[in-house]
Amino acid sequence: MAEHSTQTPVTAPQADTLQRSLNNRHIQLIAIGGAIGTGLFMGSGKTISLAGPSIVFVYLIIGFMLFFVMRAMGELLLSNLEYKSFSDFAADLLGPWAGFFTGWTYWFCWVVTGIADVVAISAYFQLWFPGFSVWMSALLCVGVFFTLNIASVKLFGELEFWFALVKIIAIVALIAAGAWLAALHYPSPGGGTASIANLWRHGGLFPKGLDGFFAGFQIAVFAFVGIELVGTTAAETRDPHSVLPRAINAIPIRVIMFYVLALIAIMTVTPWDSVAADRSPFVSMFMLTGLPAAASVVNFVVLTSAASSANSGMFSTSRMLFGLAEQGVAHRAFARLSGRAVPINGLLFSCLCLVIGVALIYLIPNVMTVFTLVTTVSAILFMFVWTIILCSYLAYRKHYPQRHRQSRFKMPLGKVMCWVCMAFFLFVLALLTLRADTRAALLVTPLWFILLAIGWRLRGGNTARRRKMLHP
What we know:
Layout: H1 24-35, H2 38-42, H3 44-51, H4 55-79, H5 86-94, H6 96-128, H7 134-151, H8 153-183, H9 198-201, H10 209-223, H11 240-249, H12 251-269, H13 281-288, H14 294-327, H15 344-363, H16 367-399, H17 401-406, H18 414-431, H19 436-444, H20 446-460
């Protein structure tokens, strides 16, 4: 593989390549949107009830580990600007099989997540329009996402900018409301008054012991799904050497700001043992402030968050299929770009799979059981993708030491932290065996890799069309 300049040349737009249309503010907000999952708004009640105040440490640990995964991804993407995503560098550094497995797994992850998001959006929609058909709202969602993504990557960037802004405003408002209620010593729903002491007054920081602490990891990991989304925008980012490092380095601050402070605010006002597991704590908090439209406001925020996730998923899946087609391990039709440089066939295929998936979900009687299954499967598969990023980094350090020395964005404690992070992912997988619902997902997941292995045998041998730019 030839060494590449560290500068991004400005070239005339080409019809057969992705265009660098995303600027700094787009990438910063896409990175924030990826780091703030819908799980924070809807799943935080369940995580608090499982782990109590120790859930704060759970989010800190996961955020700490994923920061190093993102740093590894950043160094790899900037080592060769011909890499369009982590599927590209996995194929180049580990072998074509790794690009195939990573690309298709990431595609499947977002289709599964998108199915959950569309069903959730349909449910949120019912609050305002109870008589509206759930099927129609689901189809309408997919149609809107297709229309938004087919327009241009610039429009996608603008939409994600505003979607992420809504999330940020909601979380900042929650933190401010918590501080205000604590300052007023407002009566807590569970008795007593709002106070920071509520974090340790009700059984200490680890009220449910290590069992509760470990149980928090199972759900909290899914809240971070999408944090790597900034990696799929690398090929369409202006000045990636400046923009990507800035977005990745801000991850620790975002985790502290958006997860830790929000959870502390919730448990300061409402003691952890009074937080309802099946309701969004955001709704409860805004209700306490006396805001009459609290339900509608939070419904809008959660709906926007789910829409942002699904929209990002459509973007990611179409780009991943484009990269796989260029590697020669997906049908060449997926490499076709529209006049606006959008992978049109990949987008159509992903939307079709989304519609079929939503239909199957609605045909199954116990939707919540299926939701738990698909979200856990998604979290497991995302951990596989994150592990491949780390393995690619180790291969890069072995085969291209010169590039690492010349890098201006080195991963801290590179090799050591790769092994630490992979050990952590194994630890989380072990925790998934402790509960019946997550254990079922763990047993189902190998079926996906069996299907991929069959697909690789049928198609994967054809590597002649791998992008010559990786080996010029």
